[in-house]
């Protein structure tokens, strides 16, 4: 069981993506922070205080699990080393098939937890899952809210505040950096439309990544229940926010990943494909102009002005 991580990087105040990418080129000089893996225990990447992970608070994010450590889930959705009626592999066989699904039992536990606070819950949670999905987590580094965000100076008349990058995670050996703008839920994403963060951030991030010879992955990371992220013609239950959201996606050409999808990928990696890593698959997805979003049920694409849910390319 994983209890801590030392790859959270503390950058000086005001440091930008450019500063971060230059810093990680020399791993021996990085200012690393020793943090806990279990977010219910540590609540927002606090310093590590190694002890037993509290099973009563577990909502099944799977961040603490090592490969080949579990094969089952409890009815509460927690990982289990002991045999139960819920097989992790059978659960994962339903994921990413181009059909609406939810991960395992008690799926609302993760959704309800991640939608509470963006900076202190959903962003750190998503950061740690992606770190676990790395080809080599020991050489994958990140900065994340609530206290480690990088800066991006893109203030304008719509929003006078200096921009902050919620999540920045990079693989120096693969020369790939993933920057995610976190939103606690679909509703929170829609509330922030006026801030125009996508257009304000994208060109500057592309510039700084290119100057450092990095491939950039830029996306929204959305917590809470992902039902509203499914396209209208999918088999997902009705959502009152879906049409409004997809109008916004259409206007800004947005891309998104759900927290639910990340947790599902972690489960998929643990039980079906131990070689799965974000450094291989995220660039392939984001290089495809048809790709819009990643959900537990599959990938959202846009072809001939139609949004559809499709089977993920890593599924047989």
Automatic annotation (TrEMBL):
It comes from the Archaea. This is Uncharacterized protein. It comes from Methanolobus halotolerans.
């Amino acid at each position: 069981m994983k209890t801590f991580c030392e790859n959270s990087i503390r950058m000086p105040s005001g440091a930008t993506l450019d500063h971060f990418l230059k810093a990680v080129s020399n791993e021996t000089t990085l200012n690393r922070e020793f943090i806990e893996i279990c977010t219910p225990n540590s609540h927002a990447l606090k310093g590590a205080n190694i002890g037993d992970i509290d099973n009563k608070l577990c909502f099944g994010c799977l961040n603490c699990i090592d490969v080949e450590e579990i094969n089952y889930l409890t009815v509460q959705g927690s990982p289990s080393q002991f045999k139960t009626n819920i097989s992790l592999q059978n659960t994962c066989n339903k994921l990413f098939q181009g059909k609406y699904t939810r991960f395992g039992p008690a799926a609302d536990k993760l959704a309800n937890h991640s939608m509470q606070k963006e900076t202190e819950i959903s962003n750190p949670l998503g950061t740690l899952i992606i770190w676990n999905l790395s080809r080599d987590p020991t050489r994958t580094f990140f900065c994340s809210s609530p206290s480690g965000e990088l800066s991006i100076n893109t203030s304008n008349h719509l929003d006078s505040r200096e921009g902050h990058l919620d999540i920045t995670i990079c693989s120096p050996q693969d020369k790939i950096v993933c920057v995610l703008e976190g939103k606690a839920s679909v509703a929170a994403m829609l509330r922030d439309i006026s801030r125009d963060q996508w257009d304000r951030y994208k060109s500057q991030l592309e510039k700084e990544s290119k100057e450092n010879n990095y491939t950039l992955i830029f996306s929204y990371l959305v917590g809470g229940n992902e039902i509203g992220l499914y396209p209208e013609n999918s088999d997902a239950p009705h959502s009152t926010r879906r049409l409004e959201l997809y109008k916004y996606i259409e206007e800004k050409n947005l891309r998104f990943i759900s927290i639910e999808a990340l947790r599902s990928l972690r489960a998929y990696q643990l039980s079906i494909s131990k070689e799965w890593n974000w450094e291989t698959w995220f660039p392939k997805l984001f290089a495809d102009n048809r790709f819009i979003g990643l959900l537990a049920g599959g990938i959202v694409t846009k072809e001939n002005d139609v949004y559809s849910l499709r089977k993920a390319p890593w599924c047989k």
